[in-house]
Specification:
Blueprint: E1 2-6, E2 9-12, E3 18-24, E4 32-38, E5 45-51, E6 56-59, E7 67-72, E8 77-82, E9 91-98, E10 103-105, E11 109-114
Parallel strand pairs: 2-11
Antiparallel strand pairs: 1-3, 3-8, 4-5, 4-9, 5-6, 7-8, 9-10, 9-11
């Protein structure tokens, strides 16, 4: 599966952008899909995960209640709706698709939150 993330950019604090990750070569519903982020000088951290086969989503404590992950199966695209953004949400956001044997990564999209 190939993943192409998009939708990042400069956003004001409190903004609500949505970033996307379009998949090709395989069906996203066959994977556990997720969003990770890496802030400058920090390690990559998990933000959200969605397991289509279980219908279960999960979120890190830092974004719970503000971010929502979703999948449009017809478009084979996973989204991350981000609400009430804070400057500490500034990071490169990466989408992933995971099987028991391998993790596939998108190229990342930069989200910069201005205060």
């Amino acid at each position: 599966v190939q993943l192409q993330a998009s939708g990042g950019g400069l956003v004001q604090s409190g903004g609500s952008p949505r970033i996307s990750c379009a998949a090709s070569g395989s069906t996203l519903a066959d994977y556990a899909v997720g969003w990770f982020r890496q802030a400058p000088g920090k390690e990559r951290e998990g933000v959200s995960c969605f397991r289509s086969f279980e219908g279960v989503s999960s979120y890190s404590d830092s974004v719970k209640g503000r971010f929502t992950i979703s999948i449009d199966k017809a478009k084979n695209t996973v989204y991350l709706q981000m609400n009430n953004l804070k400057p500490e949400d500034t990071a490169v956001y990466y989408c992933s698709a995971e099987t028991p044997n391998k993790v596939y990564w998108g190229q990342g999209t930069l989200v910069t939150v201005s205060s």
